[in-house]
Amino acid sequence: MSNKIKNDDVSLGRFISLVLRHEPSAAGIKLDSEGWADVNALIKGVCSTGRKLDRETLDRIVRENNKQRYSYNEDGTKIRANQGHSIDVHIDMKVEIPPAVLYHGTSADTIDKIKSGGIKKMSRQYVHLSKDMDTAVKVGKRHGKPAVLVIDTAKMSADGYVFRISDNGVWQSEDIPFSYVSEIRFPE
User: Fold this and answer.
1) pLDDT of residue 143
2) How much of the chain exceeds pLDDT 70, in percent?
3) Which of 42, 141, 166, 184 has the smallest number of Cβ neighbours within 10 A?
4) Going by C-beta distance under 8 Å and a sequence separation of 6 or more, which residues neighbour residue 126?
5) Where in the chain are the domains?
6) Angle between helix 55-64 and helix 39-47 axes, rounded to 10 deg
7) What residue ranges of the chain have pLDDT lower than 50?
8) Which CATH class is domain 3-81?
9) In a 3-state reduction of DSSP, which class is residue 56?
10) pTM beyond cutoff 0.85
11) What integer pLDDT is reported at residue 1 of this predicted model?
12) Are 84 and 20 in contact (CB under 8 A)?
């Protein structure tokens, strides 16, 4: 794949993420209560913003997205983001017992706020947690100097907290009290 196509796909992927997770009106579409959008309406809506998108390109973006952000329904007529919504949709995720620890990547600048108020879902529906340190570091770097909080999910689970896992492997929880943070790491 040429660099131009790859760069175009990244840019389109970001816009599609905005539309499917936060602002469907940016492409003039509507999502149903479970976050699904009609594929043809999405393509038409994205094109109406001056961007170029066809089904082949959309399929490639869905298939090759490194975070596996999107899913098609069974017959491929609808698409949605797997998680990370700031709008009110209901994604039916599997409820599972988490590993003993999970990781939350954030900015080092937020640590004092987290110490006093815990980890908040903010504008999203859930707090996102990673199963590995590397992913959490990448998330933290998006916000500045990274910090990774190690979460004692075994204790949380024993205390009755519910954990969900999205189709793309992101663990999710309601707000997390700071008392469940077992360690704070500041990777380089």
Assistant:
1) 82
2) 95
3) 141
4) 83, 164, 172, 173, 174
5) 3-81, 94-185
6) 110
7) none
8) mainly alpha
9) helix
10) no
11) 57
12) no
